[in-house]
Fold this sequence. Notes:
It is built from four helices and four strands. Helices cover 31% and strands 30% of the residues. The longest helix is centred in the C-terminal third of the chain and has 10 residues, at 69-78. Strands 2-3-1-4 form a four-stranded antiparallel sheet. It has helices at 15-23, 59-66, 69-78, 84-87, and strands at residues 2-9, 35-42, 49-56, 92-97. It is an alpha+beta fold. The chain has a single domain (2-97), classed as 2-Layer Sandwich (Alpha-Beta Plaits).
Amino acid sequence: MYVVDSAVVVPEHKAGDLVAIYKKRSKLVDRAPGFRSFQLLQNERKPGELTVHLEWESKSDYLNWARSEEFKKIHELEKKYPDKELQGIVPKVTKYEVVAL
């Protein structure tokens, strides 16, 4: 299994707006071969810290997704958020190979 986390820090007053965006997400990734799960995690002590957590069957499944047209579409939409404070956020992406369960 392969895990990809994309962590962002937003102003705390914008955290609810970002959560709402993800609750309405396109779910294009859900149909990608090898996709296992999506979670949006919120730090309980620092609500402005959020992480998109994706699980994949394999690294190659994730890489195929990351090179797809659907991936490009989703990330182009992020650049067009009407809220300027959310538009410029750059996530810190961390990738993991699951080595034991």
